[in-house]
Design brief:
The chain is of the alpha+beta class. It folds into two domains: about 25-160, Electron Transport, Fmn-binding Protein, Chain A (Pnp Oxidase, Chain A, Roll), CATH 2.30.110.10; about 170-205, no CATH class. The protein has helices at about 15-20, 25-30, 35-45, 90-100, 125-130, 155-160, 170-175, 180-185, 195-205; strands at about 50-55, 60-65, 70-75, 80-85, 100-105, 115-125, 140-155. A hairpin with a 2-residue loop joins β3 and β4. The longest helix has 14 residues, at about 195-205.
């Protein structure tokens, strides 16, 4: 495989148009600037989303998940996303403080279509807002309020090509390193990988909410 040369590097939108062709009518008409009832049904069925943000120094796309409907539709222009305890990096939240633009990608197990939401976000710790997301007696740390700019569904081709919802290969876990193994390798064995993996399930259960 040879590296791309200048003659193969795409630098203009007209080159993309020549490469991919015109956007289909359905692909344009499915995009709206509010949460249509059909799109609300997808959000309420989704237990998992990816939140994308951009800051001056860091780009971030990180997972969010809970029981289906964990992202609440406050109205057709507003989504509410609870932020629960995690690793305290808060890369997404730091980015929102600098640049409020966000994007969300919702996945629904067993469904090929995904849902894309673009908007702007703010962060609140209003007590009444936190209380809406109480789980197992625990409040989220804060809530991300997303003002919707555009919403549309993505066709199922990527999910179909990936086989995402198919039963994984029996040897997959053996081919993918564990968190402890990764940390041990990255730290030159300063982290005991076996101990980390042994303690991780209990630690996650104790700090899930």
């Amino acid at each position: 495989m040879t590296l791309a040369t200048d003659t193969h590097t795409i630098t203009h939108a007209d080159q993309l148009l020549a490469l991919f062709g015109e956007v289909g009518d359905a692909s344009l008409r499915k995009e709206v600037d509010f949460v249509h009832p059909s799109y609300r049904a997808m959000i309420e069925a989704s237990p998992f989303a990816v939140l994308a943000t951009a800051g001056p120094d860091v780009l971030d796309a990180s997972p969010r998940g809970d029981a289906p409907g964990f992202v609440q539709v406050q109205d057709e222009y507003t989504l509410l996303l609870p932020e629960r305890r995690g690793n305290n990096r808060v890369d997404s939240l730091r980015n929102i403080l600098q640049d409020p633009r966000v994007a969300l990608l919702f996945l629904i197990p067993g469904v090929g279509e995904t849902l894309r939401v673009n908007g702007s976000a703010s962060i609140t710790t209003a007590p009444d807002m936190l209380a809406r997301f109480t789980v197992q007696g625990q409040l989220p740390k804060c809530v991300v309020v997303v003002r919707v700019v555009s919403v549309f569904f993505q066709c199922a081709r990527a999910i179909q090509r990936s086989g995402l919802w198919q039963t994984p290969a029996a040897d997959l876990r053996g081919r993918v390193p564990t968190p402890g193994a990764i940390l041990q390798a990255l730290t030159g064995a300063a982290v005991d990988g076996e101990a980390y993996d042994r303690e991780l399930p209990a630690r996650q259960r104790a700090t899930l909410y």
